[in-house]
Design a protein that fits this description.
EC 3.1.3.8; 4-stranded mixed sheet; binds 2-acetamido-2-deoxy-beta-D-glucopyranose; His_Pase_clade-2; 6 strands; 9 helices; 38% helix; alpha+beta; single chain; 3-phytase; His_PPase_superfam
């Protein structure tokens, strides 16, 4: 999994102070709580889940007598299309289904006319909006500081990460313009973004350097050490456990399909990817092909957790 991150830092202080903001989002996807649509499944898509806030036992009120003088947010890029290699495999899976299955019935009926149109690697409109929302939320949360300061922004060099940082600044800027207590125009916008390349020899603390298998790799032990395949090994082991019953059900419902284990996982992946390909995050028809329990198992595949990981106890 590519851990490319946009780090977005700023000076700030104040209490959490939710402010309604004009944005016609559906009620299950909001700036302050993130994506809560069908949360019993959509929060179980691992790295493919849209941003959502989680309950915490740690109170977010400031202790009496304290004030915030600095705040930092470290963010993953927004929701994106599949990677280039995955998009080709997803397309091939749909192509195979449509070539071999003569009769799509029940919840599978949509597959007869489903057209694969997902792109590769870049943010979707929904993913751009996630970061705009993050900028708005951050601005309003720390308004006494953000209203008088410009943020300092750092981003790793991959295109979708830089665009995420840009969208975050756009949200921050829009919230500042909407802030009645701010008199002056936000002349510091567009705020400069320090972009750190992901190439060899760069000491890029926002990227572990997974593309670069040469000597100057930043996290060489992580990339090429004894555990470098721990994620893909763990994924394959777990898929071999939980996928076969799902695979049998799909192949029985779709005579001629003959989906493999990997292709069955791809059918599941198409739920989150088609959901975030919709500009308002409408849950895709692929999602209804699987049960809540199956989505809870799927989360573990996306976490890439090895057998020893405590998260497995919840799988
Ligand atoms: C999302 O957009 C689709 C069409 O683009 C529309 O049919 C649907 O009602 C919208 N959903 C919400 C919750 O706004
Ligand atoms: C498709 O499947 C349905 C339900 O099993 C069946 O009633 C129908 O006759 C089938 N159609 C064709 C063209 O095979
Ligand atoms: C999907 O595969 C078909 C057949 O190979 C190809 O013609 C089409 O361009 C592909 N579509 C996408 C979106 O990759
Ligand atoms: C996100 O930022 C990019 C680059 O500035 C811009 O082209 C795009 O329109 C922005 N997205 C939205 C939803 O405004
Ligand atoms: C990265 O850090 C190493 C070790 O401190 C240093 O030799 C190298 O010049 C740094 N590279 C860059 C691009 O700053
Ligand atoms: C199903 O696919 C497997 C390979 O994954 C192949 O060996 C087998 O012959 C296929 N079965 C049919 C009926 O096409």
């Amino acid at each position: 999994m590519a851990i490319t991150l946009a780090a977005l830092a700023g000076l700030a202080f104040a209490l959490a102070r939710p402010t309604p903001y004009g944005n016609d989002q559906s009620s299950c996807d909001t700036i302050y709580h993130g994506y809560q649509c069908q949360d019993e499944i959509s929060h179980y898509w691992g790295q493919y889940s849209p941003y959502f806030s989680v309950p915490s036992d740690i109170p977010d009120e400031l202790p009496h007598g304290c004030s915030i003088t600095f705040a930092q947010v470290l963010s993953r890029h927004g929701a994106r299309d599949p990677t280039a290699s995955k998009t080709a495999q997803y397309n091939a899976t749909i192509y195979k289904l449509q070539a071999n299955v003569k009769n799509f019935t029940g919840p599978y009926a949509f597959l007869a006319h489903y057209e694969y149109t997902l792109g590769a690697d870049q943010l979707t409109i929904f993913g751009q909006q996630e970061l705009i929302n993050s900028g708005i939320k951050y601005y309003n949360r720390y308004e006494p500081l953000t209203s008088r300061l410009a943020p300092f922004v750092r981003s790793s060099g991959e295109a979708r990460v830089v665009e995420s940082a840009q969208n975050w600044t756009q949200g921050f800027h829009a919230a500042k313009l909407a802030d009645r207590r701010v008199q002056s125009a936000d002349t510091a916008f567009p705020y400069p973004i320090v972009v750190i390349p992901e190439t060899d020899g760069e000491n890029n603390t926002l990227n572990h350097g997974w593309y670069y298998v040469f000597l100057l790799i930043l996290c060489n032990t992580f990339e090429n050490g004894p555990d470098d395949n721990i994620a893909s090994d763990g994924q394959a082991q777990w898929a071999a456990v939980f996928i076969p019953p799902i695979q049998s059900r799909l192949n029985a419902a779709l005579p001629g399909a003959n989906l493999t284990v990997s292709e069955t996982v791809y059918m599941m992946d198409l739920c989150p990817f088609n959901t975030v390909a919709s500009s308002n995050g409408t849950i895709s028809a692929f999602c209804a092909l699987f049960t809540k329990e199956e989505w809870h198992q799927y989360r573990c595949v996306q976490y890439s957790a090895p057998a020893s990981d405590p998260i497995r106890a919840t799988c």
